[in-house]
Amino acid sequence: MIVVASGLLIIGSIFALIAAIGVVRMPDLYCRMHAATKAGAFGVSLMLLGLVVVNPSIRVLIQSVMIILFFYLTAPLAGHMIGRVALQRGVPFWKAPEAEGIDRRKTESEDSSLKKDSRSLT
Amino acid sequence: MFSDIIPIPEWVIFVIQLILGIAMLLCVIRIIMGPSLMDRIVGLDLLAALIMAQIVTLVLVTGFLSFLNVAVAIAVISFIATVALARYLEQSDDSES
Questions:
Q1: A89 CB within 8 Å of a chain B CB
Q2: If 0-12 CB within 10 Å is exposed, 13-18 middle and 19+ buried, where does residue A104 land?
Q3: pLDDT digits (tens, 9 = 90+) for A71-101
Q4: What residues in B contact A41, CB-CB < 8 Å?
């Protein structure tokens, strides 16, 4: 029991650390949002499950499940609103660096998305 | 209210708090040097999640189950703050970011 709970807690905190590293190291606002919402929510829910395993009472179970459900219901909403505002304000997209001397073949969707002005999307 | 908690070993608590502390430090770095305002909002959102994880650790250390209510409140407040900031930035028309 203690081993399972400790494993859940440590793995959850490592997921939170991965989310923070992603927020610092990702090259773009949209990539940063991706790292922060998904990995952060997953890490916190793993830690809450670890707490449930440590203390299996009905109150802790109900509150933990409530927090996890609320987190997973509201994280996409918040991410969507931030992403829409960023697109409206013209936060630049990250462009992958080209290798020298090699023509990278562009796909169809990439070509069309590069031509459009980001402000005119909304 | 106290509860009879199964004691987690102390080094596990130490490792969890160390990892979460490093994560919060990285988050603060992004909040300080974020190029745009939206980067700072993303950093604050993640920082609220990390504070919730710290509260779970606090429940494990002290055994006060009432701290879980604090976690619920922080989840609600971080969501409302994010949505309010996004709406505010959406409606204001000046191009200062």
A1: yes
A2: exposed
A3: 899 988 988 999 899 888 888 888 877 766 6
A4: 49
Whole-complex ipTM: 0.85
Helix (H, G, I), strand (E, B), or coil: what is residue A16? helix
Contact A38, A14 (CB under 8 A): no
- Residues A97-118 have a mean pLDDT of 58
The closest of A103, A78, A54, A26 to B56, measured between CA atoms, is A54
pTM of the predicted model as reported, rounded to 2 decimal places: 0.82
Put simply, whether A19 touches B (Cβ < 8 Å) is: yes
A20:B23 CB<8 A: yes
Of A14, A44, A67, the CB nearest to B19: A14
Q: At what angle do helices A29-54 and A58-89 cross, to 10 degrees?
A: 180
Structure-model confidence comparison of residues B94 and A15, the more confident one: A15
Nearest to A3 by CA among B64, B12, B17, B16: B12
Chain B residues within an 8 Å CB radius of A86: 36, 38
CB contacts of B30 in chain A (<8 Å) are 23-24, 32
